[in-house]
Amino acid sequence: MEDILKLLGGAAATMLLAFVVGATYGGLVRKIIARTQNRVGPPWYQNFVDISKLYMKDTAVHHGVMQHIGPAFAITASVTVLMFVPVLREGGWFPWFENLNFKGDIIFLIYMMVFGSLGMALGIGQTGNPNASIGVSRGLSMMVGYEIPFVLSLVSVMVQTHTTSITGLMEWQTQNGWLMFEAPFAFITMLLAILGMFHYAPFDIAHAPSEIASGPPSEFGGKYLAMMMTSGSIFAFAKLVFLVDVFMNGASNLVMLVVKTLLLYMVPVLYGAVSPRYRTEQAIRYLWGWPVFFGIIALIYSIYI
Amino acid sequence: MGGAILAYLAKRITPMLSSIVSFLAISSAAVVFFTMTSSTDVVTVSVRNFTLQFGLNAYSWVFAAMVMGISALVSLYNIAYMSGKDRLGYFNLNFTLAIMSMMGIVFANDWISFFIFWEIMTWSSFLIVVYNGIDEGKIGTKYMIFSAVGGYAMLMAIVITNSQIDSFLIADLINAYPTFGHGMQAMIGILFLIGFSVKAAVMPLHVWAPRAYSDSPMSFTAIFSGLLSKMGIFGMAIMFISVFSKASIGDTFIYSQVIAWLGGVTAVMATFYAVIQKDAKRLLAYSSIAQLGYIVTGLAIGTKLSVMSALFLAVIHALYKGILFMAVGAVERQAGSTNLEQLGALIRKMPWTFFSALIAAIALAGIPPLGGFVGKWMLYESMITSTNPSHLFLVILIFLSSTAAFLYVYRLLFGLFLGQEEPEWDHVKEAPAPMVIPMVLMALTLILLGYAPGLLFEPIANGMEFLGFENVGWQMSSLSNIWGDTVDMQYVWGSVVTLFVLGAIFITIKNRKSTRYVTTKDIHTSGEIPEAHENLTYAVDFYKPFERAIEPVMRKTMDFYYNHFGNGLESLFGFVRKIYTGNGQTYAMYVVIFLVILLLIGEQIFK
Amino acid sequence: MDTNDKGVRKIVDMITGFARSNSLFMLAYGTGCGDIEIPPAMTSRYDWERFGYRKMATPRQADVLLISGYLATKTLKRVIRSYEQMQEPKYVVAFGSCTINGGMYWDSYNTIKMLDHYIPVDVYINGCMPRPEAVMSGLFDLQEQIKKGEANGAQKYRENLEWYRGNQKKVIKNWVMPEYNW
Q1: pLDDT, tens digit, for every residue of A94-138?
Q2: C82 contacts on B by Cβ (under 8 Å)
Q3: CA distance C164 to chain A (A)
Q4: Where exactly are the structural domains of chain B?
Q5: How many structural domains are present in chain A?
Q6: pTM
Q7: Which of residues 18-57 of C touch B (CB under 8 A)?
Q8: Domains in chain C, please, with CATH?
Q9: Bridge partner residues of C53 (DSSP)
Q10: Is B498 near chain C, with CB under 8 Å?
Q11: Of A34, A49, A53, which is closest to C49 when you measure between CB atoms?
Q12: Alpha-carbon gap, residue B298 to B489, rounded angstroms
């Protein structure tokens, strides 16, 4: 009984942390993009205001049961990923954030990460909005693009360290040094892949607001949009923590965690702030070009090192 | 057990007239099978100097259980699906024959009966492929030619084996194989593999499959793609695990590498083709080929984990592809079309069909926590932990294929069940209960297997131990690879289901009263008011951007090469006609030349 | 917690007002010449994102309907539909003299003169055209109204639906609005 309570408490604490940090990052990103455009930008807490306003919005119409539970799919996926990713390295505050870290591995997480998009896509499909469907078509096609370098990078890391669990990877890094330096090509591949993964420019064609009316979420308002934004904040944080765990040996306290994740997050954000937009097929070809090339080098490197 | 076999054989005569009889026959056979599984008698029938042997072992039990369980459900579906169609007797005879011949194949302990049942299976399925009468000349001929090539290859292998060891028993081949010469090992192996690959639709031999799958009645395609193709896997597993593993080392390596890569390429190419299809049946047909590619790859890699994943996927694939074909069949029967560009928004009309198709699609995509993920996980882990570097590159192909599988899975669900509601499909109603019940039951099985995959690991592990692995470890709900990393399916399942239920509850009770349903015409259209007949669904060329991206690899189909091959053959036969001059002396010369050649190289071949 | 308690009610109202007024998602209905004033207000010169305003693409996500000029009867139909598709609470900001009295289209046979007769307007911004400063000052007014709980145009619309519909039907000759509209 005590175990379950501890698990639930830890899970709630982790979710809260992920939401707070993720939404703050969202605000910071808007601020940073504004600063690069020589604007002042919204305050850092803007995303909290937006999300709470959306939860307070009154009416919500839906086009059927799939649209209704679509956001539930999204939040399931992001929270599940969060539960299986070690937020902090062992020791210190670790017991609070242990959650389900030892019950899954990287392959599982790769699959869990797409669960939400597929569920959301089904909900979006039911609205019957042509713009939304176009967005889904673009988003899913792009997903095939960035999954390949992403997986190549992770496979080469797994081969190099002879473990597929994240906790195993972190132990390996504690002994041998950060994988960022031990597996440089894998890290380069990952940096290129996350440009696509976070859907910032130049890979934001799925959500192009002025072209296809913000694409996938165009029929979602009120509580649905709020839930999608909540899930998005948590998911961004979970992905960043996952990457930090894999390449930078996690973090032993919250401050280090914030520093590392923010540094990593800046890569797609800053790249996106100054980029125009790729068409879908250009994006796929780009992601299957240099990133895959580096990925293959990373794989060869990991085999013969 | 012998009684059961005789019962199957006897029942072949009865199910002439209606689907109900065929359902009763199959389900009673299934009941007999599942109640008598403990017996492992071997029935030996001697016909003059041939010895035919039937019996069940731990390995064939897996396949027999799969065949019986799923075909019993599918034949229930068949009752409703085929009602109102003509030539039912013809169809059901062949339907039942095909299922019974599959049982014959898995029960066969010797190559002769194996081959006989194999041919019965081929013929009965051929007759069903041409049943619908769509383009039967082309599709049927293609299927027949490829099956014939496979069948003759297998027959040759069987005859050669017999000439070597003077026995038709499968067990004898397994024992005697290491004693053969090098060339003989290669020849028998390749011939058998050609025979099995045709049924398993591996890349260069897959050409018959898309049309044959998509143009036979859906109730049979569920069997065709789910079970019949698994007979190729059944044979291949015996060849790979029991036979090749004993070949000289270099050979094993080459076979398994070639087949593994063929499986990987099959998976990728077939997935790409599936993505660009416009018809739900075709899409599923290509997807079947792709999924069989995974299974073949898993078998060819040949480690404990990979073989287990291959056999697990074989069973799971039969389940989810069965559901999907049945769901598409239900849509076809209720709405009269399977065109993904025209259909839409059947979810409110056929909710149960949608539910089972959704579960099956999630399993197909390999998303946790359903059974499909378990199989995929084991396949990836077996490749990543493999000591062979080429498997590490292969894993990328498999990943590419399985990521691209999300595209066609979504396309299928979107095209059939989601999108704008149209007055054209207002008349559509939910399929009758006999069609819905099997689908929902199979969907629930998939959910259960996600929670406790051990239910299926147990027979598979036993079967693998029979095939020659030692100490196949398994746990009820936890997966692990040889590096000792685990995934605990119970926690995964629990976490996903709990969160999903919580999320759904939260989103439902929040403002529950003010949330109401509006039709799909009430969407953001920049203020424009769509009229009732205007269809705004974006369904034509759904993945055009993706098509453009993969265009370079899609230019030439395999058909293209086969057509060239056919043209080449025609000119070859023209040349042959020149050789047969009709002059007796020329023929005599040919005979002499042939004998000389035989003397020269015969020594090498028939050592 | 007793939600009818006065103190609690006040705090809840304060939070609600703060969140609603500081996160205005706009749906800009750019008719006439007025829409040209919105880009400067959005971009680096005036940067309205610092007050939490944001342009949204669809009525489902938006709180504020910005109407930036004259409305022909044909356009009015689309505006009404967009307005009705928005989720409550929702506000309308109309700017330019055209929305107030028809402006230079006073004599036009197919342009409406007072937008207030057709959909409830919370804030009018005067001018032809109002400069971005004026637009933003109008939006500040809207924020104040929301904080005080006075921006209840949607409620007005719901209560006086008959009257609004009558006015709408008077100018829109071929009224083929679908059933599901409201």
Answers
A1: 566 666 767 778 888 888 888 888 888 888 888 878 888 888 888
A2: 526-527
A3: 21
A4: 556-605
A5: 1
A6: 0.85
A7: 29
A8: 6-172 (3.40.50.12280)
A9: C24
A10: no
A11: A34
A12: 21
